[in-house]
Design a protein that fits this description.
The strands form three sheets. Strands 6-5-4-1-3-2-14-7 form an eight-stranded mixed sheet, with helices on both faces. Strands 9-8-10-11-13-12-18 form a seven-stranded mixed sheet, sandwiched between helices. Helix 7 packs parallel to helix 13. Strand 2 and strand 3 form a beta hairpin. It is an alpha/beta fold. It folds into four domains: about 160 residues, Pyruvate-ferredoxin oxidoreductase, PFOR, domain III (Pyruvate-ferredoxin Oxidoreductase, domain 3); about 170 residues, 3-Layer(aba) Sandwich (Rossmann fold), CATH 3.40.50.970; about 55 residues, no CATH class; about 100 residues, Rossmann fold (3-Layer(aba) Sandwich), CATH 3.40.50. Helices cover about 40% and strands about 20% of the residues. The protein is built from 19 helices and 20 strands. The longest helix has 23 residues. The chain starts with a strand and ends with a helix.
Length: about 550
């Protein structure tokens, strides 16, 4: 095991609670000051199939997992059969001795422990976790505190099961503490939810669709406390149309979906564009086309998001690279959608949505707080009145003595339908003025991140969830890393500054064509090569490192 780093794989079948067990292990390691990241792999099955999670903990911030692991926690034989090759030389297998046949490692008598405590089979993961705590040399008292917080149901019984397994285990590898402060650990979906609440979210609407479903569940759990409405309409079309009605009435509404659901929303996205109704869409990418791999990840909807909807209208597209960025940019995206009265899209993916990250405390301030409101003393109210930068002041119904009109047709300043060519052009120009102003504003904020070795002449171009693995290998191999976060409007000047001095750059993406590479080529930048992965899984550190060796000497 490398000093100050440890990787743990836990596996079993659907129904064994592998995701929750992985999250508990992540919190156990975070409790000692480690920065953690978890990748969860599972098929689209309610029962059966093979589920596993890899939890990696390191002294410095990370956003990718490794192929090799120090511990394998096996709840069934299949986990050993599929993953034993991953184990490092001094690694340890901790397994359910009642279901796994293995001559080495630490066998935990899970069946006997559950019987002694009259515990249900799902608590078998608590037994394996207890065995891991002892094998990793973690402090029981500190660990039991994490277990209590993580197991709100059947807490005492779970603790007794874990303690019995702890006593049946043995210490094999001491996981050293870091002495660093403990950071909160969040999934990307949780971080997005926090950011939305910080941006004064009032209504969240979604029809459940992996990988954004957990935003719906998370916010619903706190709806009363946060005084927000969480609604599940009957379809994705109803989701976006209801949200636009909320925006018209002055309520900050956000919707969540994935590619298939977004397909159904595109006509209403155009409605938001011409009616100048603010809305934020959380678009969680997964492997397509169509249903594709419903529970696996991809970065393949960038071009779709750029061009969704008929006609031309301003839009904002943001692709955060980890949970911390997801929190900041969901908040900023909602603010900017309302400031400019446009549709905005948070383009996440399954790895970020459902992956776990240690989140550093924020030091910045909220970027853009509120929309431009109409002066109530000015009559009559014109919804699409000419204004600076094309941003017409807002008023919401009911407004005494006024009519607040919005229209899906071409309209005049009062929202009345027209086919006049001059008005048609004037309204189109008005809308695009907002895009011009937004583009200038995007240039002034941190819309293009640079990392790795920032003065290196060879660079990796990445976006979204590929950030973590590129950052790590950029530092290791002396490469510059360039990560556009705001993908539209594209910050040309900021990107040119980030590329200054670069002689070669390689696009690293999890799609078949290199969609970001295609986008930057529109601005005159053609990559020296593309490193693409499109099997539904993210780049692991060793995997990308091997690919880099093929193209960079």
């Amino acid at each position: 095991m490398a000093e100050r780093e440890v990787s743990v794989l836990i596996g079993g079948k659907a129904g064994d609670g592998i995701s929750s067990a992985g999250q508990i292990i992540a919190h156990l390691l975070a409790q000692t000051g480690y920065r953690v990241h978890m990748y969860f792999d599972y098929p689209s099955l309610i029962k059966g199939g093979h589920n596993f999670a890899i939890i990696r903990a390191a002294e410095e911030g990370i956003g990718a997992v490794r192929e090799q692991v120090d511990f394998i926690l096996a709840l069934n034989q299949e986990t050993v059969n599929l993953h034993r090759h991953r184990l490092r030389e001094r690694g340890v297998v901790i397994y359910d001795a009642s279901t796994v046949k293995l001559a080495e490692g630490i066998g935990i008598p899970v069946k006997n422990i559950l019987a002694a405590e009259e515990a249900p089979p799902v608590m078998g993961n608590s037994a394996i976790i207890g065995g891991f705590v002892r094998a990793a040399g973690l402090n029981w008292d500190a660990s039991s505190g994490v277990l209590k917080k993580s197991m709100p149901k059947g807490t005492e019984k779970n603790l007794r099961v874990a303690r019995r397994a702890y006593e049946a285990s043995e210490e094999r590898q001491q996981v050293p503490g870091t002495g660093k402060p403990v950071l909160p650990v969040l999934t990307g979906n949780e971080a997005i939810s926090v950011g939305l609440v910080e941006a004064d979210l009032e209504i969240y609407l979604s029809y459940p669709m992996s990988p954004t479903s957990n935003i719906l569940h998370f916010l619903a759990g706190y709806a009363d406390e946060l005084r927000i409405r969480v609604i599940q309409p009957e379809s994705e079309i109803a989701v976006i149309l209801t949200a636009l009605g909320c925006s018209y009435a002055g309520s900050r509404a956000v919707i969540g979906t994935s590619g298939g659901g977004f397909c159904l929303m595109t006509e209403a996205l155009s409605l938001a564009g011409i009616a100048e109704l603010p809305i934020l869409v959380i678009l969680g990418q997964r492997t397509g086309p169509s249903t594709g791999l419903a529970t696996y990840s991809a970065q393949s909807d960038l071009h779709f998001a750029l061009h969704a909807g008929q006609g031309e209208f301003p839009r904002l597209i943001i692709a955060p690279g980890d949970a911390g960025e997801a929190r900041y940019w969901s908040r900023t995206g909602l603010d900017l959608a309302w400031k400019y009265q446009i549709p905005a899209i948070i383009l996440s993916d399954r790895l970020i949505c459902e992956g776990l990250y240690s989140v550093e405390p924020e030091t910045g301030i909220r970027y853009a707080a509120g929309p431009v409101m109409a002066d109530p003393a000015i009559h009559p109210y014109l919804r699409y009145a000419p204004a600076d930068y094309g941003i017409s002041p807002l008023r919401f119904p009911p407004a005494k003595g006024e009519i607040v009109r919005v229209n899906s047709h071409v309209h005049d300043t009062d929202g009345i339908t027209t086919e006049d060519p001059l008005v048609t052009k004037e309204m189109a120009d008005k809308r695009m003025k907002k895009m011009d102003r937004l583009a200038l504003e995007i240039e002034g904020i941190n819309s293009i991140n640079t990392g790795g070795v920032t003065d290196a002449v060879i660079a990796l171009l990445c976006w979204g969830s590929s950030k973590g693995v590129c950052e790590e290998l950029g530092k290791k191999k002396g490469l510059r890393v360039i990560q556009p976060v705001v993908l539209w409007p594209f910050a040309e000047k900021a990107f040119a500054h980030a590329m200054d001095g670069v002689e070669q750059f390689y696009a690293v993406e999890t799609n078949e064509s290199g969609q970001l590479a295609t986008l930057v080529s529109r601005f005159g930048y053609r990559p020296s090569g593309k490193i693409l992965k499109y099997d539904g899984r993210p780049f692991m550190v060793e995997e990308l490192e091997a690919e880099l060796k093929k193209v960079i000497s």
